[in-house]
Each structure stands twice: as structure tokens, then as C-alpha cells.
Amino acid sequence: ESSPAILLQLAAPLAGLLARVRELLVQYEEHPSLLAIEGLVLKMQGLKLLQTTPMGIVTMLELLLGRATVWEESAAKFVSLAPQLQPLKALVVSLRERQLLEWKGLRVIREKHWERTGSKWWLHLVGLLS
Questions:
Q1: pLDDT (tens digit, 9 = 90+) per residue, 60-106?
Q2: Are 64 and 37 in contact (CB under 8 A)?
Q3: What is the spatial distance between Cα 67 and Cα 63, in angstroms, rounded to a whole number?
Q4: Helical H segments across 1-130, by residue range
């Protein structure tokens, strides 16, 4: 299922990151890491609001953060993207926490389902053994 609210939360941080990356591209033309980050941000900004799942967003964010890590490892402090990446990292963490909570709820629901299903067959099993 889609989650438009998550994409709306991403709009400002992605715009800030894109502006900073384009600013750096003026200084470091054709840098592969910056071009990759720019391409991913543009792709994420083009995602369809009602057709993108939260986990699809998380996957793309993690890929973006991975590419940004390549830049951060070799970049000096004055060209860092850390301030722009922080809100995106926080969003990934919150979405992963949400995923874990949903899995726990799903597991509980499935356990109750199998308990009900098993209780239907209990009488048949007792009949076979007697």
C-alpha cells in the first residue's frame, strides 16, 4: 500500500539535498558520486505519490545514503552533505522501526488465525484416536 505522507515528508529534505549537490557540482563538475546522488534524488522526486510503498521508499533512501557515504568518505568537511542527509537518515530509522512493529502485529494476528484453525481440527483428531 502507498503512503503519500512519507513522500510528502521527503519533499523538503530531498530539495535541500539536491540544491547542495548542484552547488557542489558547480565546483566539482562531473563527479561520479555527486552525479549518482543527483540522479537518485531526481528519481525519488518523480515517484508517484499513490503508487509508492513505504518499503520502496526505504530501499531508495538506503541506496541514496549509500551513495552519499561514498562522497562523505572522501569529502572535506566544508563540502560535506551531512546536514542535508541527517533528516533522511532519521526517516529511514523511523520507517524501519515502524516495519518491525507492523511485523510483530502481523505475527500475532497469524498466530491467532492458526490457533482458530487448529481448534477446528482438534475434535477430528480426538475422534481418530478413540
A1: 999 999 999 999 998 889 999 999 999 999 999 988 888 888 777 77
A2: yes
A3: 6
A4: 4-27, 32-45, 54-74, 82-129
Assess contact for 126 and 85: CB atoms under 8 A: no
Q: What is the CA radius of gyration of the chain?
A: 23
CB 66 within 8 A of CB 36: no
- Grid coordinates given for 77: 568537511
Q: Is the dihedral of CA 14, 32, 93, 96 positive or negative?
A: positive
Predicted structure pTM score: 0.74
Q: How far apart are CA 14 and CA 20, in angstroms?
A: 10
Distance, CA of 85 to CA of 89 (rounded, Å) = 6
With cell 503512503, the residue in question is: 3
Indicate the length of the chain as a whole number: 130
| Angle (nearest 5°) at CA 126 between 120 and 129 | 145
Joined together, the cell numbers standing for residue 120 give 477446528
Cell 561514498, residue?
A: 70
The cell numbers describing 10, all together, are 521527503
